Amino acid sequence: MKRTIYRNPPLCACGCGLPVKxxxxxxxxxxxxxxxxxxxxxxxQAGEGHTKARYWKGKTFxxxxxxxxxxxxxxxxxxxxxxxxxxxxRRKQPPPSEKTRHKISKTLTxxxxxxxxxxRRRKREKMKGNKFALGYHHTEKTKQIISAAHAGENSYLWKxxxxxxxxxxxxxxxxxxxxxxxxxxxxxxxxxxQQVKLLDVHHIDYNKKNMDxxxxxxxxxxxxxxxxxxxxxxxxxxxxxIRCNHT
Length: 247
Known about the structure:
Elements lengths: L41 H4 L5 H6 L6 H11 L6 H13 L5 H11 L8 H11 L12 H10 L23 H10 L16 E5 L12 E5 H7 L4 H15 L1
């Protein structure tokens, strides 16, 4: 049974100013509030994170221990409430910034697979028959449900329905041919890597009714699809600079 100490509790040793709790079954007090002891660690103060996280960094479980963990989780399923909270938490997370995406891309570029050929072969064999991996296909009903859940205003690419707006009257095959001839039938994206190129004419300001030749630029089909959704401001700035250099 816990014995109560009839005096004011001391404050936490980390310096937070909060009172500590009594030790279980003792007349003494704890030195820290739970999880506050790490704040007094020099590594934590230097910004290297929690000591527990640093302890596990770079360490791996043995095969036996990994197998035990795997067996202990088999057959367990998250409740619908837990899955709902996880979905809401993911929706609230902001997307990575352009700088972060660039760092990730630079880190992964040219990196070989961590698995050997034998390791990849074993992984393929292990995944065979798994309905959530190889050989699994959604039913037509599931495909329709997924499509409806991401269609129209539910899509993160929704721009207010501007894709259904008509082009201007001057948008003709003759105009597109003139723009491609002016650009030498070459994709104007400086980072284009496509060899077989189907060419399109792109509106730099994304206004279908603006038929000014300086607002039109030649792009291959692959680059045109990349510019149609994300980072429109970035692509507009890049293509305007290209047109300014050519005029």
